[in-house]
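Minutes, project check-in
Item: structure for the 365-residue chain
Input as provided by the requester:
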Amino acid sequence: MKKFLSYLLPVLLCIAMGWIASLLQTSALIEWYPTLNHSPLSPPAYIFPIAWAILYVLMGLSIGSLISRGDMSLVKLWLFQLLINFLWSITFFALRSPFAGLITILILDVAVLTYIIYAFARRALAAWLFIPYFLWLLFATYLSGYIYINNFDSTYNAYAQTAPATATKSITYTLPPLRYAHDALAPLMSSETIDYHYGKHLRGYIDNLNRLIVSTPYEGLTLDQLVVQSDGALFNNAAQVWNHTLFFDGLTPSQGEIPDGLEHAIVRDFGSVEEFRRQFTQAANSLFGSGWVWLVENDKGELSIITTTNADNPLRRGLNPLLTLDVWEHAYYIDHRNRRADFIEAWWGLVDWEQAERRMLHNQQ
């Protein structure tokens, strides 16, 4: 019984710490984390709790394999790294500080590597049980570093301080109103998804944009101008406001037929509406990671389908977007979990074709 407890208690302690940390992360995961620019290698959100649950069990079994033999030499080091692990959740998520989170996880890397080195000298099994945890931490360190560099880089701040100021009037960017009620798209898109995706994610990008643009040369620019001219964290948030605005504006609870002008252009450039839908669906299903799928028009009025990752926007390529599909996981996780294909199929029943045609610059009707 004593030997069994020596394994069970550390595992339960790890799981308890992880559970408490997850409670502290909830608000940030809903309102803040999705507004950041993530690495293309970032796995789907549902992977993280599964991975951490497995790793917490392995962590507990590692120290348990030593305690069961009466070896208490590494207990303090094991507890120290578990505490740093918990602090990383606090600094990165609860405090919403990518810089503090990056520093904390680097300290954790050193602590875990030290534990593994000493564990090999005591019992190889204890060390091997920790190696998957260490490899996962290295990956998490990369993801944290990517978020810090691509959302809160000092390069942009330095430029903002030295670039010549422009005499422009400050603009406060606001949440664009929806043309339909939050529950009007159900059952194809639930009111809960609208509440979170529109009410929290989009609002988060707008709040970040209004905060980041203060005292920069970009104050007073329109959203279109910001998307084309800005970089770094300012671009990420400005483009996500632009992208989401088009996405929500392109939905309708009362879908009609495709207008003649848009249908003519689609048939001309894709062969048929069915072929256009097939190609668009394939592009949406095939896009790895987070991003957008667009129907765009070039300066000759020709239509094409393109995909962009993260916050990238066709305006930066001189293209005119007619409609877009958000394939970031937060767009569909509430209604469809990780089933992107089901979300895409539902989206086709909500597309506002009239809005798409109104955006055409070369309407040949």
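Outcome recorded: The chain has 14 helices and three strands.
No further action items on this chain.
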